[in-house]
Amino acid sequence: MDVDIGNALGTTPGLTEETLERLDDRVASAHERIARGMDADEFGYASLTLPETTDPEAIREATDAFETPSAVLTVGIGGSALGAGTLSDALPSDVDAYVLDNVDPDDVKRLLGSLPLDDVVINVVSRSGTTAETLANFLVVRDAMDRAGVDWTERTLVTTGEEGNLRRLADRHDLPALDVPEGVPGRFSMLSTVGLAVAALQGYDVEAVLAGGRDGMDALSGSLFESPAYAYGATTYALAERGALTNAVMPYAESLETFAEWFAQLWAESLGKDGLGQTPARALGATDQHSQLQLYRAGPRDKLVTVIRPTERAEVPIPETDLEGLSYLGGSSLGDLLDAEFDATEASLAEAGVPNVRIEVDRVDERALGELCYGMEAACVLYGELANVPTFTQPAVEWGKRAARGLLGGGEFPEADAVAEKRELRIERG
Ligand SMILES: O=P(O)(O)OC[C@H]1O[C@](O)(CO)[C@@H](O)[C@@H]1O
């Protein structure tokens, strides 16, 4: 993974070489803190040792219990689904991967109507074992399998904490079960059992993903000028300090669209604390050049754009054409066109003085994805250290959970009462 921060200098908001030099002293101290946390396996910092602590053998042992299925359905939400989804949506596989990470009844009905229930592995993942959406979906999926005459206990893999509903379920029915790693918040768990069980079921090279993570780990150093991950974390932090409160992440690869969704949780849930943070906006190149780029170039100077691309792409030539004004495309290729648009977007933003950072990976494969995700996790941890926020907790998501639970009769929660006090000003069709 390479990071190029040149287009964050002299922009609005923007940095200078002196800013970065001064900031590098703070990066060095932050790295010492991070390294201590990693060495001591401290809560949260343990995430950055997963490339060494994750046991691929344990993952294979659990997943080998299942003959190669035609499909795998992950029932989880947030970090319990997005890491696996990042790999599944980026890499080819003969095993189809589906994710239920929402409780939209129309979507669940549609999916259950199309799934080969007798040839799917249900990969149910929840660290806590109490997440309403995950457990509700699992109960619905299990019921559907019962009604289809499929023994769900033969087709279910559980990944969960030491205790809780899913652990008890696995024990009661002797289900293959994987442990979620201790001290690793869900959004940081892609390089663990949580993100890699599906990869194993889909036939991906799990060791290569972890090797990529180790590449990222080995690249951490006490200087942003020597570590791509820290260069990204320090630059995004310093730009936020100067007003770039949105970070539009724009991969120029369809295969990285789910990665951007994974990044959004990592960045928002880790850094959105104490009135601080940087809103991750999700975009896709080249598509959003015909959409959000207008705002990025000509809208408020309150953002940076992160453009990401693999330098190796599939070869799809564009046939010669006499279409008026388009003959220049003939003989070129879709990859050439996409890369020209990438370069043009970067230059367009720079010319308008909008800060943008380039991240490049050689290609979209297991090792590159492992390094990219590890790098973003390390960048996030560094940003959190520099911003002095509690990176690894997410207390703000609890209020809504209590309100929803109270509304469904799951207990007495004052948050549910607050729902009834909503201020109304309904505007109805005349
Ligand atoms: O794995 P669990 O405990 O079901 O949590 C799922 C997701 O919900 C959160 O805890 C937020 O509610 C995320 O941090 C996490 O990734």
Q: Please, could you describe this protein's structure?
A:
Helices cover 45% and strands 12% of the residues. The radius of gyration is 23 Å and the shape is globular. The chain has 16 helices and ten strands. Helix 1 packs across helix 14. Strands 1-10-9-7-8 form a five-stranded mixed beta sheet, sandwiched between helices. Strands 3-2-4-5-6 form a five-stranded parallel beta sheet, sandwiched between helices. With 430 residues, the chain is α/β, with parallel strands linked by helices. The chain folds into two domains: 212 residues, Glucose-6-phosphate isomerase like protein, domain 1 (Rossmann fold), CATH 3.40.50.10490; 126 residues, Glucose-6-phosphate isomerase like protein, domain 1 (Rossmann fold, 3-Layer(aba) Sandwich), CATH 3.40.50.10490. Helix 6 links the parallel strand 4 and strand 5. The structure holds 6-O-phosphono-beta-D-fructofuranose. It holds the Pfam family PGI. Catalyzes the reversible isomerization of glucose-6-phosphate to fructose-6-phosphate. It is an enzyme of class 5 (isomerase). It is found in: Cytoplasm. Its main location: cytoplasm.
CATH C-level class of the largest domain: Alpha Beta
Bound molecules: 6-O-phosphono-beta-D-fructofuranose
Strand order of the largest sheet: 1-10-9-7-8
Radius of gyration: 23 Å
Question: What is the CATH H-level superfamily of the largest domain?
Answer: Glucose-6-phosphate isomerase like protein, domain 1
Number of domains in the coordinates? 2
Q: How many DSSP H or I helices?
A: 16
Given the helix and strand composition, which structural class is it? alpha/beta
CATH fold annotation of the largest domain: Rossmann fold
Query: What share of the residues does DSSP label as strand, in percent?
Result: 5-15%
- Major β-sheet profile: 5 strands, mixed
CATH architecture of the largest domain: 3-Layer(aba) Sandwich
N-to-C CA distance? 56 Å
- The protein's oligomeric status is single chain
Helix percent reads 40-55%
* Number of distinct beta strands: 10
**What global shape is seen?**
globular
Mean pLDDT: 97
